[in-house]
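Quick one, tokens below:
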């Protein structure tokens, strides 16, 4: 019979190996010194006589090493001290932190999950024109008739004005002044009205020229007693500013060649004034007619401004200035032809009336008219409404003032937010975008999910916000 030879032995179980190692292990005995009391109880205090105390150390942990199980010398058994507790403790802590973070993320997502959907639909302009009448008898906006309420305004004002006088007249003035006449002679002297008094030539600025004379004439007859004096008025023999001379001593040319010439003279103590060669304004008949027309035109402008200001204070708009009815009275002029004045003053009573309207009424009428024209399934951006109006004259029916109104707005396809939310609920971001882009009239879509780790639209419809952006 052939004998079986087994050269490969199956590895033994870890428990068997550990038990065999424990059985073979000898306890480690350590001699320990006895306490003092025990040594005294011994025989004769001899320490060697006392029975030693043995302590058996903890056996080392025996683990099985699979790789060493087939080793010839070791038999797959090795000794390893207990280690790795520090790392296991930190591993447990890290796991707890991760679990806490995950729990917090779950709680945050459950409480604050949200989706903001921004949609940009295709837009197009819609514009309509209509004729609008302003009727003061209308109490409200009438879209079928195309009428808005009108408001009657009236103003009354007294307007003052003036106009220049174009006529001229020479105003040659002669210098005048007071002189004191002295008589140092032994006899009385009589000087008749018009007696000449001559001033020194150097007193005249500019100098006397040509036929001009350096004389001043006394204006009344005077009698001067011997060794006395008297005061008289004198006027220059010619016009001009050069006769406005400074205080001077005058001789009497009429006494030349007589003994009295050196004893009788005159003297002024103040400057002569009034000499001029200026021209002054004078009112003509044409000036009066021009002044009346100028004051009337000024009154029309003033009463228009008054009426427009009154309309603005009441928040109203005047249809057109041509609709203002003006009534001008007869101007009162304070000058007449021939008067020497530079300007002609006057005043006039002006009245005006007009029909005005509220701008908001006109715009509301235009809105209602355009909203009627928007097709089914479309919406409009009311903030994009634009209005333009112009005066269209007076309607034949009653002569009411009319306006041509153009109203425009941006329109876009309407969407049902609730239906969109239901269709978006729990969809992933890419799926939600495809769903929205398949909606009619959709141009662009933007989806923002929060918290940041969320990748799908929340299930709760209240956490879904849809914003329509028009640009």
């Amino acid at each position: 019979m052939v004998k079986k030879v087994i050269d490969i032995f199956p590895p033994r179980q870890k428990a068997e190996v550990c038990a065999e190692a424990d059985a073979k292990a000898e306890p480690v005995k350590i001699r320990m010194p006895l306490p003092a009391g025990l040594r005294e109880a011994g025989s004769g205090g001899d320490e060697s006589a006392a029975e030693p105390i043995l302590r058996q150390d903890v056996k080392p942990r025996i683990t099985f090493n699979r790789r060493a199980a087939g080793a010839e010398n070791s038999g797959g058994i090795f000794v390893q001290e207990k280690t790795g507790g520090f790392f296991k403790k930190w591993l447990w802590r890290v796991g707890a932190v991760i679990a806490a973070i995950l729990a917090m993320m779950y709680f945050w997502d459950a409480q604050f999950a949200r989706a903001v959907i921004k949609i940009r639909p295709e837009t197009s302009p819609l514009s309509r024109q209509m004729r609008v009448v302003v009727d003061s008898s209308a109490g409200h906006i009438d879209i079928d008739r195309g009428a808005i309420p009108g408001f009657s305004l009236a103003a009354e004002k007294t307007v003052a004005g003036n106009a220049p006088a174009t006529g001229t007249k020479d105003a040659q003035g002669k210098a005048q002044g007071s002189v004191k006449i002295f008589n140092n002679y032994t006899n009385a002297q009589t000087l008749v009205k018009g007696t000449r008094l001559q001033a020194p030539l150097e007193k005249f600025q500019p100098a006397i020229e040509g036929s001009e004379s350096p004389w001043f004439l006394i204006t009344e007859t005077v009698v001067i007693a011997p060794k006395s004096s008297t005061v008289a008025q004198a006027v220059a023999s010619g016009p001009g500013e050069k006769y406005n001379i400074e205080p001077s001593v005058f001789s009497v040319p009429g006494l030349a060649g007589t003994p009295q010439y050196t004893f009788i003279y005159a003297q002024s103590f103040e400057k002569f004034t009034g000499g001029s060669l200026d021209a002054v304004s004078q009112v003509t008949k044409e000036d009066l007619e021009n002044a009346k027309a100028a004051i009337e035109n000024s009154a029309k402008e003033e009463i228009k401004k008054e009426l427009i200001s009154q309309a603005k204070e009441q928040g109203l708009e005047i249809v057109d200035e041509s609709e203002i009815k003006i009534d001008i009275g007869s101007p009162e002029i304070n000058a007449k032809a021939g008067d020497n004045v530079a300007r002609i003053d006057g005043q006039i009573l002006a009245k005006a009336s007009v029909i005005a309207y509220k701008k908001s009424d006109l715009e509301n009428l235009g809105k209602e008219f355009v909203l009627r024209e928007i097709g089914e399934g479309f919406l409009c951006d009311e903030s994009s409404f634009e209005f333009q109006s112009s005066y269209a004259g007076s309607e034949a029916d009653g002569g009411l003032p009319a306006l041509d109104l153009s109203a425009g707005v941006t329109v876009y396809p309407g969407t049902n937010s609730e239906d969109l939310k239901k269709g978006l609920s729990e969809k992933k971001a890419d799926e939600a975008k495809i769903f929205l882009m398949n909606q009619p009239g959709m141009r662009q879509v933007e989806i923002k999910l929060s918290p940041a780790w969320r990748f799908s639209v929340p299930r709760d419809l209240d956490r879904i916000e849809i914003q329509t952006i028009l640009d």
